[in-house]
Design goal:
Layout lengths: L6 H8 L5 E10 L11 E2 L1 E14 L4 E6 L4 E6 L9 H15 L7 E7 L9 H16 L6 H16 L6 H8 L4 E6 L4 E6 L5 E11 L3 H20 L13 H6 L6 H25 L3 H17 L6 H10 L5 E6 L5 E9 L3 H16 L4 E5 L6 E3 L2
Parallel strand pairs: 4-6
Antiparallel strand pairs: 1-3, 1-13, 2-7, 3-6, 4-5, 7-8, 9-11, 9-12, 10-11
Helix pairs in contact: 2-3, 2-4, 3-4, 3-5, 4-5, 6-8, 8-9, 10-11
Bound molecules: alpha-D-galactopyranose (GLA).
Alpha-D-galactopyranose (GLA) binds next to α5.
Length: about 375
């Protein structure tokens, strides 16, 4: 096996007999940000960058998980799974715990994880980690879960052991995506439609700010709570309202005096973003990429000014892209406060744009920008050993 390890773990790697190899991808989201936990619409898909997992059962009660990327080992007894004080371990432990909560039994196993996803870049390396592990354990121990169960196991692991009240988008995209398509997901009904990602001469380019402001987790949960406060206020007189999905602009205006200005601003953004997703889907289906780009820019504006989950670095990049006719649209992607902008750009314009953006970003923030193109790809899958 061609994995570089410290001497501490080289024996583990050398003796590993891979039973199953799984790849689990990161994701992009064309539009529909912070709408998933509000039961709205999103338009994500998996990309051609993965975490790779190798599994073997070991016939004991002990689980040994080795992160080759970080040269770190996690060991635990499968009968004594509890939360850890290390974040990365909680993604693993949370998944095992969720499997056990569903009354399925797994034994000890060994796993090697290699990540090719930049962390904190908003392409959801966390969902890829949860879903790849859940998928692999489902296969190796023949647990009989459906794909949608794996999605929910990943999401719940994050709610419980990791502590982020995330929506379902990332795990859904990581598991359910199909090559060459984006997913229009209705987060209320969990119905989805695969839409051909037909970008013609255009492609998706990600610009990674390489910043990850640490207020991201707490701010995320605050946004969830702010949206819930609006729902609670409206539900007093409209008991059928269970989420912002059931809220109209009129209902929101009617309740304005009873909620905070901030909460009103957040909810207004969500209602607008849901409308934008539907329009963006029509634009994509009819090949009107210009309009799709305009919706992406409006989405960024809402995230920047109303939902307030952007940051100076993301705003700079989204704004900078407007100088280039070759870029049809750009916006921050994912939870926010750092990570990537997603750009819809003509193939001929990529080189010049990346060169100029890298230079301008370095001058402004003294940080190196990284960039990569993202191709709509297959979700979590078994690969040949
Ligand atoms: C993170 C969460 C998702 C979603 C996005 C914002 O990626 O994990 O559930 O809420 O932020 O759209």
């Amino acid at each position: 096996m061609s994995i570089k390890t410290s001497s501490l773990h080289s024996e583990f790697v050398a003796n590993f007999k891979t039973e199953l190899k799984v790849t689990s991808p990161g994701r992009i989201n064309l539009i529909g940000e912070h709408t998933d936990y509000n039961n709205g619409f999103v338009l994500p898909t998996a990309i051609d960058k993965h975490i790779v997992f190798q599994f073997q059962k070991n016939g004991t009660d002990i689980c040994n998980i080795y992160s080759a990327t970080f040269d770190k080992m996690l060991q635990f007894n499968v009968n004594e799974v509890k939360q850890s004080d290390k974040e990365w371990e909680n993604y693993i432990l949370g998944v095992v715990n969720q499997i056990q909560i569903r009354n399925k039994t797994i034994g000890g196993f060994d796993c090697i994880i290699e990540s090719y996803l930049p962390m904190g870049s908003g392409i959801s390396s966390s969902a890829a980690l949860e879903c790849g592990l859940a998928y692999g354990l489902n296969e190796v121990f023949e647990l009989g879960f459906e794909k949608i169960d794996l999605v929910k196991i990943g999401q719940k692991a994050e709610h419980t052991f990791v502590g982020t009240q995330c929506g379902i988008m990332d795990q859904f995209a990581s598991v359910m995506s199909e090559k060459g398509h984006v997913i229009l997901l209705d987060c209320q009904s969990i119905e989805h439609q695969l839409i051909p990602a037909d970008f013609g001469d255009y492609q998706v380019l990600l610009l990674n700010t390489n910043v990850s402001h640490n207020l991201a987790d707490s701010a995320y949960n605050t946004r969830v709570a702010e949206c819930a406060s609006v729902v609670a206020a409206i539900a007093k007189n409209n008991p059928e309202v269970k989420s912002l999905r059931n809220v109209s602009f009129k209902m929101l205006e009617d309740v304005k005096g009873e909620i905070t200005t901030i909460a009103h601003q957040r909810a207004k953004y969500v209602l607008e973003e849901n409308e934008r997703v539907e329009k963006a889907v029509q634009a994509l289906k009819s090949g009107d990429l210009k309009s799709l780009g305009i919706y992406m820019y409006s989405s960024h504006k809402g995230l920047q000014n109303d939902y307030e989950v952007s940051c100076a670095e993301l705003d700079f990049l989204a704004d900078f892209s407007k100088k280039y006719d070759q870029v049809l649209g750009a916006r921050m992607m994912g939870g926010g406060f750092g990570g990537c902008t997603i750009n819809l750009i003509h193939k001929n314009g990529v080189e010049e744009f990346v060169k100029d953006a890298t230079k301008a970003y370095k001058e402004k923030f003294k940080i190196d920008l990284t960039s990569f193109t993202a191709v709509p790809s297959q979700g979590t899958a078994t690969v040949a050993i």
